[in-house]
Amino acid sequence: MQLSAPFYAADRLVSRWHDAIVDPARRERTVLASLLIYVLLWTAYGTIAKSSQGLHPDMTEIVAWSRDLSLGYLKHPPFAAWLVWLWFSVFPLTEWFYYLLAMLMPGIALWIVWRISADYLDVEKRIVGVALLTFVPFFNFHALKFNVNTVLLPLWAATTFFFLRSIRSRGAICAALAGIAAAGSMLGKYWSVFLVAGLALVPIVDRHRFRYFRSTAPWITIAAGLFALWAHLIWLLDSDFKSFSYALIVHGDKPFGEAFASAAGYLAGAFGYVAIPIIITFAIAWPSIKILADIAWPRENERRVVAVAFWAPLLLPVVGAVAASADINSLWSMPVFSLFSIVLLSSTEITVHAIDARRVLFGAALLPMVMLIASPAIAIMVQFAGPAPAAAQTRLLANEVERLWHLTTPRPLRFVGGDADLAYGVITYAVDRPRALTALPQPSRADIMKHGFVLLCFAEDKSCRRQMSGRGPDAKEIETEIVRNFFRVAGIPQRYTILIVPPTSITSK
Questions:
Q1: Residues 6-23: pLDDT tens digits?
Q2: In whole angstroms, how far apart are CA 374 and each of 50, 100, 364, 368?
Q3: Fewest beta carbons less than 10 Å away: which of 56, 377, 421, 484?
Q4: What pTM value is reported for the model?
Q5: Residue 91's CB: how many other CB atoms inside 10 A?
Q6: What value, to the nearest 5°, has the Cα angle with vertex 223 and ends 217 and 226?
Q7: Taking Cα atoms as reference points, which of 252, 247, 248 lies closest to residue 325?
């Protein structure tokens, strides 16, 4: 067999794949099948590459929230917790299914991008546009860590899609769906206020803005959004806006210089994440200064509307951070890039040929396959480096906690507290599916007395261990050491303090 044979075979496969997408009769099902394979490949990569690490604390924290369903939480609004609760009501709580849920977020977002692009790009540009986003870490590497940023990927894309359709058609259905999707985005993370504010600026630059404002569409969008948000708004009032207070305490009240540097770092980081798509586009089109200006601020009305829908939610956080003396992170720009490739490619001065689309498709297909092949080596390298104990060892810690608990009482374990990351990790892996006590609504004292609880600390954390004192005469404090080995690669030992407070043994403190 000639060495070139695999390359010719790959070229034929990519050509057939490209032809199936170009063919209107096969286009939609081919794109859906491609995105499903994309999701599965990256899910497999995440499951293997992260197998030595365990679930990230952000992911186990949301599991903890999902065990205490609420209209809101101390840190964030509730949509991510609702989604995790629904997902694991159907599927078992395993790492594979959790990474599958995480990768469905960019998978759905990419499908929405494909649908949006139909209004602005020809089919070759649509293919390249979606493929380019698969080179952005937000749509794979970062998306594997399911959190309140990941969940915004499809929500922002859907909001943008329906809002742009609403401006063009002024139809009631798209207007209502835009409002509902915007409410979903706000229920995902309050950062979405920049999406809502940014999209509110979009009709102002539209040449047909007076038709839009005279129609019922904007009022339907506002009414639908408020209707979908009303229960959470009541919760915010009842809780004295504690979610906002948390954000201000953690990220606010920064010196002007620090806030300005943070805003500059946010912009630099955001564009750094999309450097590969920019480089590929430049290689295809070799745009002049004139074309670059047309990309940034298009001459045509519809393209300019899309540009503002992209630029406003991206740039408004910079203004907000400097004005409010707050710090912001470039990772938070994750959901804004659903329109990026459309803005990048929609100029009529840029031409994408079939050969360009096939080459980008080949690269987009190659990346997840290469990463999947490399995933076992990545897992072993992480083990050599020493993964964080709070994630890597919590499955073993959960087993030990439940073993000690059931030696003490036949009742199921219901509550786990102490160090937040340890508590969230243990409740995620524990068979009894307990609830976390740390930074969550507290059950009644009578309920705690009835069921008992466990507190967990790193053995060297004196502040955490002080909270274990005075918990009753039957409380048992146990210190244990856990080492997680991985494929004969020794892990780093970590000592933990476990306090077991059996049912009905609690005294007042």
A1: 777 888 999 999 999 999
A2: 12, 19, 16, 10
A3: 377
A4: 0.95
A5: 13
A6: 140
A7: 252
